[in-house]
# Entry
Amino acid sequence: MSDNEQQPERNYSDPIFIIGFMGAGKTTMGRALARKLNWNFIDLDDLIEARAGKRIREIFAESGEGVFRSLEREALRSCGDSPRTVIALGGGAFLSEANRAQVRRAGKSVWLDCPFDMCLARIEGDLSRPLASSEDAMRALFESRRAYYATADFVIQTGTSSPEALADEIKKTLGL
Ligand code: S3P
# Structure
C-alpha cells in the first residue's frame, strides 16, 4: 500500500470509506476488513436501496441518475461519522465534491485501485449496474474517474491479493 498522506494512527475509530470503480471488490474487501476489526459494515448501495424501497436499477430507470445521486448523497450523510464502521461506497459516490468533503470530515478513505480488465470481468453482463453498459463506455468512465479516486487518503493496488490480505494491509497501515 502506498500512503497518500499520513502516518498510521493509534486508537483509530473513525469510519473507513472504501472507494473505487465498479467491480474493484469494495464490498468483499470492506466486509473482510470489518470482520477483522470487529467493526460494523455498511454497503452504501444497500443502504440506498433500503431507504428507497427500490433496487438501484429501478431508481435509475424510473427517476434517472440525478435522483440516484441525491439519494446517494443523503444516504452517505445519514452514516455521519459512525465510529468503528467500514463503509463501501458505490463507484460514482466519490465524484461529488460534497461527498468527498463529507468523507474527509468523517474519517479516512481508501481507494481500491483495480485494473480495468479485472473490473470488467467482474461486472460484464451484470444488469444490476445501470452504468455498466458497453465496454467502451465503462473504459471511458474508468479513466475519467481515476483523478477523483486518487484524492483518497490511501491507495491500495488490488489484483492478485485476496480480500483478506488487502484487509490486513489496510489494518496495518492504519495501525489497527
Ligand atoms: C455506480 C456504481 C454502483 C452503484 C450505481 C452507480 C457508479 O456501485 O452505486 O450503479 O456510478 O459507478 P458499485 O461500485 O458498488 O457497483
